[in-house]
Amino acid sequence: MDPVITIARTRSAAPPDESPPLLRLAPHPFQRAGAWAVTILAGREDPAEITTDDLAAVADQITADVVRAALAAKDAAAYDWWKVLFALFPNSEPTHAKRSRDRGVLAPAVARFFHPDADAPVRPCCFCGAAAGTLWSKMMLPLFDSPKALNTLPPETAGWPVCRPCRISLWAMPYGAGVTAGSATVLSCPESTVERAFVAAGCRRTARIRAAGFSSLPSDASPEAVTLWALRDHAQYDRPSSVTLWTFKNDNQDPWLRVSETRVAVVGFLRALPTDPAAYRGWRSLQRACHQKDKKGVVVRHGRDVVARALFETADRPPDQLCRELVRQLGDLEEVSAQNLRDWRALHALYLREMYGMDRNLLAPATTLLADWISAERNPRGRFNEYRKVAGRGFGLQVLMMEASARLYLDGRNPPDVTRVTKGLLAAGGEGTRLRGQLFFEVVAELVARGVEIGAKKAGGENPESFENSDNENENEAGGDAPLIGVDVELDGTDQNEEEYV
């Protein structure tokens, strides 16, 4: 009789001749971020290298920083770090409104958070599975429930068992996160080098916050911009990875969590970007176009961060935000230089090639068809506006292309064969939207190359409406036309002073 083999679901174990590492990377993103922060604060390369002395040193540093922030005056720079801690641990002793202002009382209380387990029943740590004799709950764990909540805690416990390394990691997590005064962002990625790079950048940033407050970060990069830099420079070439950003606020009344992620193909796009000069110029000029300042010259929207976020996907907005942003920038063609148009067309095409394997040459027949039809008119502005009205709509574009083919054929010209591209171009959904966006870039660029004049009126009248909202365009306005796109402009020198981040 064959023996019965029982396969149990277990955590990965170390080889029999080795003891398990003291600090383990658990699946939970908060613990992972904290474990990497402990590693960097201890000056180690990998969490497996952490020793008991390292844990003690990091725990002492966290205790000193927490106490200093909790006792700081509200107008002191150190108080900004207390705001960070309050957003993540609002119910803990050092962040509570009724906390002691006596260092002799508060410091030992915080130090007890990280003491070795006392004599207590030992259970598996809820994060890494190691032996744990300390129970924590909402007071000490971001986004966890109160011990009074039903059906969420392990059976017959008054909290979640958390081992000492994970307790230290969770309070080290803010050091390596992308923090604001009210939220934090951590990263998880299958590639450990990407995780480490993100946390290392966070540790450098939070060191400045603890020393001089948020005012010391006048031009700080967003978590998305830091993530793209980490992906481009640290993801493996033969095994690109996606990343997930977890942004949260552990508020007592309205806690929230927002999750965004990149696709695996983003790594290839980021690495292909510097190899395509036109697309790279388009990336930089798009950042400048998205950059906004208020009347006092204060930056209210950093273009670098806007473009970086466009490569992330969330559940509450459609994908391919980079393509949508490029199309939005074409809202007023008279404000777009011919150089930017060519560069944005190259950027849009590179994105589609790397993310979807699309070759823009597939659109050449449709581009020629529409450009021939528009330029055949003595005053081509009317036909161009007809195209612009339907450029983003599948059925409307189908009717227009049928009309253009018929008109060219009746005029004795041979219209190009567009049957290879019409299925995808006219389709509903994401594929059609992406192809129609690229086609608009191709058609406008072709008209510019031919010298077709479809600009704003030289005198009087209104500017043409945008690509996305042009239903009320008056196509029979009198008056001469200026060139479709304005003259090329000089770059402002931003590219010569390239920043660290993408």
TrEMBL record:
Domain of life according to the entry: Bacteria
Sequence ranges of Acidic residues compositional bias: 468-478, 489-502
Disordered, as annotated region: 458-502
Name this protein carries in UniProt: CRISPR-associated protein Cst1
